[in-house]
Amino acid sequence: MADRLPAMQALRAFEAAARLRSFTRAAESLNLTHGAISHQIKTLEADIGVRLFERAGRGIRLTDEGERLALRVRSALVELESAVREIADQHNPRQLRVSVAPSFAARWLLPRIGRLLAAHPDLDLDVRATMAVADFQRDDDDVAIRFGGGTWPGAVAEHLFDEFYTPVCSPRLRRGRLPATPAELAGHTLLRSADELWKPWFEAAKLDWPEPVRGLVFSDASHMLQAAADGQGVALARISLLGNDVRNRVLVRLFPITVPAAFRTYLVYPPRLAQSPKLASFRQWLRDEIAAEQRNTGRTRNRTGHR
């Protein structure tokens, strides 16, 4: 074994490849090329004189020595990153790094952000719109807002609100000739967001229809709602993402029938931030905004007779 320690870049490349079981995915996660990852790992193997990976069919797997090293390297990197975060937080205790899905960022968080900054001018917010689930051991995110089942390993998850779905469209769709009954949706393009199914709503509306398999599918719900606003079809929308679009008649809710989502929206954060003042400010602001929205929704339902 060489006298010098392996370079940090090589250890990071190795840890990513070991964790993801793929040089290609490791390269994507570190914004490097496949060749760069391969070179770093070959350099590491040469430095320590041990083979860390071997071929397994069309993929790779760790050798026994690689498995042992991966555990130690991962633990060391987590400790180093924790120390860096601690120093950074002490240097800038006002900064709060928030990871949030792009659709929730665009349609719920950002329209309200002015009120947050007005209420907490001492807070520096860093909003990170991403579909990736925050890994608080590996990433430097402080807190996340996530739509899911409520269980994220190594993190605290606080329920914020339940989610419901309902069909919406532009009031100008087909020159204003909107479907008057759920059955009339048969003649319309049904817009879909990935992993958010129409079938439960069909059942609630007493429609014995299969899940749509044709038409437009969107990976991001905000894009789907924009397509609906542009008159491209009828979208099955999460009510929390409608924002002011219904009040401003950009979108209209077609029927008073709603169905609960299988998942709910949570505030997720690492246990180390449980007593953080900046997290407490953000949490309280979120809960105040949610309570105000629920009061407004209740008043609207009472006026329209919707249940």
Number of domains: 2
| CATH fold naming of the largest domain | D-Maltodextrin-Binding Protein, domain 2
User: What's the helical proportion of residues?
Assistant: 25-40%
Structural class: alpha/beta
Shape: globular
Quick one: CATH class of the largest domain?
Alpha Beta
Q: Determine Rg (CA atoms, Å).
A: 24 Å
Total strands: the figure is: 11
Can you summarize the main beta sheet?
9 strands, mixed
Work out the strand percent: 15-25%
Number of helices in the DSSP assignment:
9
Order of helices and strands: HHHEEHEHHEEEEHEHEEEH
Spatial separation of the terminal alpha carbons:
72 Å
Low-confidence stretches: 299-307
CATH-defined architecture of the largest domain: 3-Layer(aba) Sandwich
SSE layout:
Blueprint: H1 8-20, H2 23-29, H3 34-48, E1 53-56, E2 59-62, H4 64-91, E3 95-100, H5 102-109, H6 113-119, E4 124-129, E5 143-148, E6 156-169, E7 190-193, H7 199-204, E8 217-218, H8 221-229, E9 234-238, E10 252-253, E11 259-269, H9 277-304
Parallel strand pairs: 3-4, 3-5, 7-8, 7-9
Antiparallel strand pairs: 1-2, 5-11, 6-9, 6-10, 6-11
Please tell me about this protein's structure:
Strands 3, 4, 5, 6, 7, 8, 9, 10 and 11 form a nine-stranded mixed beta sheet that branches. The C terminus is likely disordered. The protein has two domains: 82 residues, Orthogonal Bundle (Arc Repressor Mutant, subunit A); 214 residues, D-Maltodextrin-Binding Protein, domain 2 (3-Layer(aba) Sandwich). Helices cover 39% and strands 21% of the residues. 27% of the residues are buried. The longest helix has 28 residues. The protein is of the alpha/beta class and 307 residues long. Helix 7 links the parallel strand 7 and strand 8. The protein contains nine helices and eleven strands.
